[in-house]
Amino acid sequence: MSEDLLTPPHLTLADQAALWDRLRAATPARIALGRVGHAPPLGAVLAFQLDHARARDAVHAPLDTVALADELAPLPTITVASAAPDRATYLRRPDLGRSLAPAGAERLALVDAGCDVAIVIGDGLSATGVQASAATLVRALVAELAGLSLAPVVIATGARVALGDAIGEALGARVTIMVIGERPGLTVADSLGIYMTFGPRIGRADSERNCISNIHANGGLSPAAAADKLVWLIGEALRLRLTGVGLKDDQDGLAAVGDAELSGLI
To answer: What is the total count of domains within the chain?
Structure first.
């Protein structure tokens, strides 16, 4: 974006520079990059190319399932794959990423069905993000779910969000939590999203899920904060027996009301 077209002409050069400095500090967007002749500065071009490469790597990188399982230990884990046979097919055929491969279905059939919560970690569109912080998030979540029965953590490759429905149904879970790598951008390539579904079964619509997104270290939600918010949502989902558009995230509002009641204000 050119500064020439947007800078008020009556400002001094110093004031113009200060204005653009304030705007740059307020957003990660690529604004007021300057120019060298008819091109952006070399530093801006190289930074763009680096961020683009990181985003591409996040999409195409394989998930190290062994390292992830080791990081989750001593939590029990099961590794499964979607029906997408390779990464290239996964990217072209989202429908295959929503279905379990037969071998994965057979592994899940060996688990005693029936649990309150099934946690699934899917590579999604950013294995980089999953590798960076999924284990930290899941361990923080499990620590706060005392009193609820949990299935083994399922690590899924070639996964789309709806793969959690097939996994949760196979495990007889009341609620499925899908922790998945989000589509990377030029600002953040390692972000996670969480999708929660009550009564998981094949064919559930996206409107029947709740989502917590932008979990990353670059100004996003921390794994600990995401786990705290998710625990509250799980409790509400089990109480109301639903997720999706019927379950509103009003945790902060309810906490404020509770504080006011305790202090005798209302």
So the answer is: 1
